[in-house]
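In these records, each integer encodes one residue's backbone shape. Here is one protein:

___
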Amino acid sequence: MGDGGGSAEEVRRALAGAVAEQRLRIVASLIRTTGDWDLAEDAVSDAAERALLTWPRDGIPDNPAAWLTATARRRAIDVLRRAAVERGKLADLAATEPPTDDAGSDDMLPMTDDRLRLIFTCCHPALSLEARVALTLKVVSALPTDAIARAFLTSEATMSQRLLRAKRKIAHARVPYRVPSDELLPERLEGVLAVLYLVFAEGYATTSRTLADEAIRLGRLLVELMPDSDESRALLALMLLQHSRRDAREVAGELVTLEQQDRTRWDRDAIDAGLALLSSRSGDRGAYAVQADIAAVHATATAAEETRWSEIVALYDELLALAPSPVVALNRSIAVGMSDGALAGLAALDAVAEDPRLADHHLVAAARGDLLARAGLPDEALVAIQRAIELAPTAAERHQLEILAGDLHP
């Protein structure tokens, strides 16, 4: 321990830094050795609470993270001992316990691979997609249950049950706590990336900075743990490039279209970081890489009229070949309208709108209204925009469309 007690502010800063640096390592290691997800999380929380009580009195440890690690491990041992269960695991834990609170060697910290094991376990395909998302945000990101529930528009009780079912599924189905083998890794990594992008997309759609920021933080962690994964870097680049527009995308509570955004408000550091990630790839491009390339074209256009729309159309063609979906086709039709003229875009949109999966989708009507307006057909455009307003799922999107409708009124 350091000499004397620490002030409340010094303790708070030291504890926050240690938790941010090592919480995931400690939790992941305890889950591996105990097999008990709740015990691992509770042990780390208990260690943090003990720090708040003891550090002001005894002083901040020379190595706060090591102190937390040792304390959390001892807490897990105590719980197992009192329950008189898992004797083999108890012996294993006791054998690996650090000798002192202030052990400074990196050898006493859990293996980096434990974090990767935890991420892949949370995103295991045996779990439902909603369970994977919830478990990743709760266990890996340490977001409170009520915050996760609010982000996904459900109750805290419902989210708690979702988390409980996911943990039980892992235990009862004997979901392995490991990084997949080489032959399974590409498929399983794709599932992990899908969870991260779903979290980001939800945050982006709802303008939730918490979810979007957390998805980017997890993306950075995955790149750190899997530096040879081009698609991990591509996903992180995609999120950074899209999120760079956050301050210009919503102004005074109102959504602003990409074309109308003040590009001086875009985050240039995030754009530069995204472009650097794209330039470092070495293998074949996957779907996230192509989407990131599309975002890069937008990010490097200093004005809306300078956007290289023909390049974007070609990239959407590539994306459709890699990951065909009606939404990609819809976005391509909009790009065609911007590249080759509104009438060409409407023709492409007509083909897309026949897909039953896009039935009653407000974005189809909104795109049609925008293209009709660009084609000089304001009356037809207004009808389409009114339909989009009826279908829009959020008040912010409805308001944005109502502004466009107001511009079309004679």
